[in-house]
Design brief:
The protein is mostly beta strands. The protein contains no helices and 18 strands. Strands 2-3-4-5 form a 4-stranded antiparallel sheet, with no helix packed on it.
Amino acid sequence: MRLCYASVAFAVIAVLCFCPSDAGAQFFAAERYPGYMYSYDDTVGTVVNPDTLLPHIVGMSLDHEGRLLLASLDGTTDVIRFDVDTQTVELLDPYVSGSLATDVCMDLGDDLCVLKEFGGSKGDGRRDYEAWIGVLPGGVGPADTAYIFDSNVHLLDFQIWPFGERAGNMLVLTRGDYGPHLIELAPTGTGHDFEYVGTIAEGGTMPYFTATWRMTSL
């Protein structure tokens, strides 16, 4: 296993994913505002949603049929599925007051996983964050709670382990008071719950401002 980290010190206004094929790689990008999404073949970009703007997208991936899965901060729906070919928009996971969907992906089956945060306020005026992983069984919401993190942990990125004995486990990049941590979770076998397995990397072994990562086989 090889882990690739990306460390950034500035904010970006677009999210990106790609779809490999025998003919090459197709890239998709989404603007936060006004809400256009683009498909790139080589260096040529094409708007894929000319008639349906989808603003405030912060996370993107593909389902097993090549449809776009979108984590949204539009205040209406946390998770959206968009079919580029048919221009169909499906609102999968209703927004819950205070929640923030930060990323979304499919597991190795038919379930959809989403990272969520809830930002509240303590009595002394400080922010108090709660974070959890939701699972949409069969891609249908609202999301069931699969794993709850300690307070004041931000969820940055995640990926389902795609191969080998640990296939189906989840790797989650978090940031807390002591910098970034890449942790591994595994299904408990009970419902859609996950449990903590271990820490793959943490603050002293990865860039402090790590914002995203991906895993590839050797």
